[in-house]
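INTERNAL AUDIT FORM
Audit reference: QA-55
Scope: verify that the stored structure record matches its stored sequence.
Auditor: D.O.
Record contents follow.
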Amino acid sequence: MRHPYILAACIAGVAVVAGCGEKNANATVERAFEDVNVVDENNLSDVMLTVADPNEAVSYFERASVSDPDRIDHQRGLASSLIRAKRITEGVIAWEKVVAMPDAAPDDSVELADALIRSGDWARAEKVLDGVSPTHETFKRYRLEALVADSKQEWKKADSFYQTAVGLTTTPGSVMNNWGYSKLTRGDYKEAERLFSDAVRHDDSLFTAKNNLVLARSAQKDYTLPVINMTQPERAQLLHTMALSAIKQGDVETGKGLLREAIDTHPQHFEAAVRSLRALENQNG
């Protein structure tokens, strides 16, 4: 990381030895350091947007935005960091500011729509998305369009948007999970099961998709765990989900058995399952 600074110093030395005037030498040094600072700043911004603590990133981009308020990349960094820090109301305001800047791009409007959905303002999110050019075809844009259509129970539109979104990404697990949940809410349990299975196949770290898969199977009175990769704690959690679903559907004895299995499976004390089983036994006792 020190090499650019050494290079800058060498440039200055060469300029003086070559007989350049002091003014030219200073200008050369300043330009060299400006280039180094831009590189270092971009690297730091990337770190702040990815691995840094979200609130630390907010502080960094707040300082950067104050020192250079016309830099749209700083404003974007601040808006993104606020959303990462779950400071959604502030994030909406920050993205509104970005969208109003002269260099704003369609992606900025999509990010604003995302922030609005997170804040629960579905109607405004829809208006923002409607204002994005139809030629701006990105995964995130169509995923958000699908969520908005879902919220309005416009199922055909939702399915079309989900299908388009899946085709625009190499990592469709999360959007398949969203699509499956949409099918689950409509009562299309078989299709929901298929989509959740596909989501897990693409990304077996998605515990939410695994849990939803169990819900879809349980809704069809299938109280067996699917054949998927799962840890022992995950297996216990999924058995617990299945048990509660069985009990809700009136299959109480099946639910009790699944709760006992969940308690025996978990490598530690499974308080939630123990509580549920005790409540059932006390109710019947």
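Auditor finding: record pair retrieved intact. DSSP finds 15 helices and no strands in the chain.
Action required: none
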